[in-house]
Amino acid sequence: MIILYELGAAGGARYSAFSWRTRMALMHKGLAFETHPVRVADKAAIAFSGQGKVPIIRDGAHVISDSWNIAEHLETAYPDAPSLFGGPSGLALSRFVNAVADRQLMPALAPACALSVARMLDAGDAAYLRAVFEKAFGRTLEEMHAGREASVKAFRRALDPLRATLRRQAFLGGAAPAYADYVMMSPLQWARIVHAEPVLEADDTIGAWFERMLDLFQGYARAEPARAVHG
Amino acid sequence: MIILYELGAAGGARYSAFSWRTRMALMHKGLAFETHPVRVADKAAIAFSGQGKVPIIRDGAHVISDSWNIAEHLETAYPDAPSLFGGPSGLALSRFVNAVADRQLMPALAPACALSVARMLDAGDAAYLRAVFEKAFGRTLEEMHAGREASVKAFRRALDPLRATLRRQAFLGGAAPAYADYVMMSPLQWARIVHAEPVLEADDTIGAWFERMLDLFQGYARAEPARAVHG
Hints:
By secondary structure, chain A is α+β, with helices and mostly antiparallel strands. Chain A has helices spanning 17-29, 67-77, 88-120, 123-137, 141-146, 148-158, 160-166, 179-194, 205-219, and strands spanning 2-7, 33-38, 56-59, 62-65.
């Protein structure tokens, strides 16, 4: 049984965009796993991994951190399960998609979601997250929240290549979903759970794709409830 | 013998970013082809294709326009030649790369290059191109040229996911170049030919990759001379 260590709020929410990439990859592979919540500030709980960030999986003797490394491990360790990448070319290009998500999409969206995440956490975790985000973005969480409409618009613009692609094919991976789809859905799943307003416009092609992603594996990602604190 | 119709300046320069995607794809496939220059304003010369844009290829009975469609045609028509996509997953993800280049990279770079291109063309073509660019960007060519440093900086920022990817693998396609590499090199090849200053910083990881791209096929892309008119 694979164990996934991931961020978990006191109220039970599993909101980490990066962990959702791993969750969907595990479902895609059809692997049994259990999840283990880790508080944002609790570095002692994950010291066994030799580094300080979740998600982490423990798979028998293997301990692997970083959602991308986990995906590569799963593809290598379980070659007979459905492929996450569709071969070496797909893996190489998925790494580019991963970089787009990490370096363009998440930074655009994060300021819009940061205060909402902090409100879901207990006082210690909220303070820890506040310090991390305020250092990264050079603004207070309240300033980021006040500017959330501009952040959401920048995020929508950054999604434009995905939008154009999905006008031509059902999934980023082609006719069926692949790891690249899980990467790209991860900021949207994060926003669905923590953000009070929809981040996509109602008629956005990406919205229909995201609904298909939420439907996968008997609605696995949809089962995580929206937890936004309004106002 | 495949015939490639592409933009060609009076002085002989073959500067079209989109045509360079097709040229590199033809070389990758090892196909014999000849190129046929078309003036920007000469829509009559390409009326046979039923539309108004180059590149176009004539491959026996097939006439195909749009660099992406041409790549798909070559992959389908010449399945025994080296693959451009590495399978269905690679093709699907390459379409996303193509959309990134078309919707983020080219629009960032184009204002920096537009006046330089116009200077390479004869008066009729220059006037045609001026009208197209000034309508698209809402500024005169001279205004775009004056703001070229800001455009180049925006282009470098937009390359960030490629930069991160190339720190982990030799080519976007993995261990060897693929169509996604030809797409991503195309704005850089365009800038190399028409832009007076380097668009990459000297220590950029992308620069080393671009040199590898210029080396391919006995230095095929490098053989096209830089034509920038300085000042």
